[in-house]
Write a structure and sequence with these properties.
- The chain has helices at 41-49, 69-72, 86-93, 113-118, 135-147, 165-170, 174-177, 189-195, 233-236, 255-268; strands at 8-10, 35-39, 53-61, 81-84, 101-107, 125-130, 152-155, 180-182, 199-203, 209-210, 220-225, 240-243.
- It is of the alpha/beta class.
- It folds into two domains: 8-107, Ribosomal protein L30/S12 (60s Ribosomal Protein L30, Chain: A, 2-Layer Sandwich), CATH 3.30.1330.30; 113-268, 3-Layer(aba) Sandwich (Alpha/beta knot), CATH 3.40.1280.10.
- It has a seven-stranded parallel beta sheet with strand order 8-7-6-11-9-12-10.
- The longest helix is centred in the last third of the chain and has 14 residues, at 255-268.
């Protein structure tokens, strides 16, 4: 199977054609022309198939080209595939790139929160994130969202970007496939969910409702805050607050771990018989 184009050799780390790949550890393209960097074979496979994303170019280690033929072949002929020796690739990236694969992508026409919620199925599942600023946590949260079938992720305006290179990598590409929307400053996440029939649930160690036995609302929205501060009191007072039972003397979980537990419950719990 032939590649869409013969790989374009790159022998100089300063080649202007690959400037967007340069020093990606020290900088990020998110927010710059709407571009992002995807890293690794698994992530690139998801990027190529992601309907909301566009692959603009690919940069690979020369030694990997033959093994990537099936992955690169579906790309349009207009997408350049650059190939460099491993030492040149490392110099371009700014660190030893053991995965040997990078791609430049762009997100198509980001949906608004209202548009995204409007598409929910009757048994929709939404993950709402408030103040998540750690890219590892963001990536892990998207990975959980994909694993347990969340239909949408809502981000408040203080969250970091899920299309940051490290967040995409930690999400194992889920940030490219799970639909998400960012709320603007002053937008009300709870009101946005309720306007579309989504029952918002908050997670708190002091939550009066235990997760075990919690009936699943037809449309459920789990809202999580950053580790440490959690959700603001004014948000907690407006939603049903749920707690995860833990060993005596301990009430803290990593936000992504907690999300996984609750999303699993909501994904597989029986619906509320009263609704």
């Amino acid at each position: 199977m032939a590649l869409p184009l013969d790989p374009i050799p790159v022998d100089d780390p300063d080649d202007p054609r690959i400037c967007d790949y340069r020093d990606i550890r020290e900088r990020d393209l998110v927010g710059r022309r709407g571009l992002f960097i995807a890293e690794g074979e698994v992530v690139l496979r998801l990027l190529v198939r992601a309907s909301r994303m566009e692959t603009l170019s690919v940069l690979v280690a020369r030694s990997r080209v033959d093994r990537l033929t099936d992955l690169l072949a579906p790309l349009p002929a207009t997408v350049p595939v650059y190939a460099a020796a491993q030492s040149v690739l490392d110099a371009i990236a700014g660190f030893p790139l053991h995965r040997g694969i990078l791609a430049l992508g762009r997100r198509h026409n980001p949906a608004s929160a209202d548009d995204l919620l409007h598409t929910l199925p009757n048994r929709g599942l939404v993950l709402g994130l408030h103040g998540i600023a750690n890219h590892d946590n963001m990536g892990a949260l998207f990975r959980n969202a994909a694993a347990f079938g969340a239909h949408a992720v809502l981000l408040d305006n203080t969250c970091c970007d899920p299309l940051y290179r490290k967040a995409i990598r930690v999400s194992v590409g889920a940030a490219l496939t799970v639909p998400f929307a960012r709320l603007g400053p002053g937008d009300d996440m709870i009101a946005a969910m309720q306007a579309h029939g989504v029952t918002p649930l908050a997670l708190s160690p002091a939550g009066p409702v235990p997760l075990v036995g919690l009936p699943r609302p037809p449309r459920a929205g789990l809202i999580l805050g950053a580790e440490g501060p959690g959700l603001p009191p004014d948000m907690l007072t407006r939603v049903q607050s749920v707690s995860i039972a833990m060993a005596e003397g301990f009430d803290s979980l990593n936000v992504a771990v907690a999300a996984g537990i609750v999303l699993h419950h909501l994904a597989f719990a029986a619906g509320n018989p009263e609704t």
